Amino acid sequence: MSAAIDRRFLSLALSLGRRGQGSTWPNPAVGCVIVKGGRILGRGWTAPGGRPHAEPQALAQAGAAARGATAYVSLEPCSHHGKTPPCTDALIAAGIARVVAPIADTDPRVSGQGFDRLRAAGIAVTTGLSVAEAERDHAGFFVRNETGRPFVTLKLASSFDGRIATASGESRWITGPEARRAVHAMRHRHDAVMVGAGTARADDPGLTVRDMGVTRQPVRVVVSRRLDLPLLSALARSASDVPLWLCHGPDTDPNIRRAWEGMGAKLLPCEVRAGQLDPASVLQALGKAGLTRVFCEGGAALAASLLGADLVDELVGMTAGVVIGAEGRPALGALGLQRLGEAPRYRLRETRALGGDVLHLWERAAS
Question: Is residue 272 classed as helix, strand or coil in its secondary structure?
Answer without folding.
Answer: strand
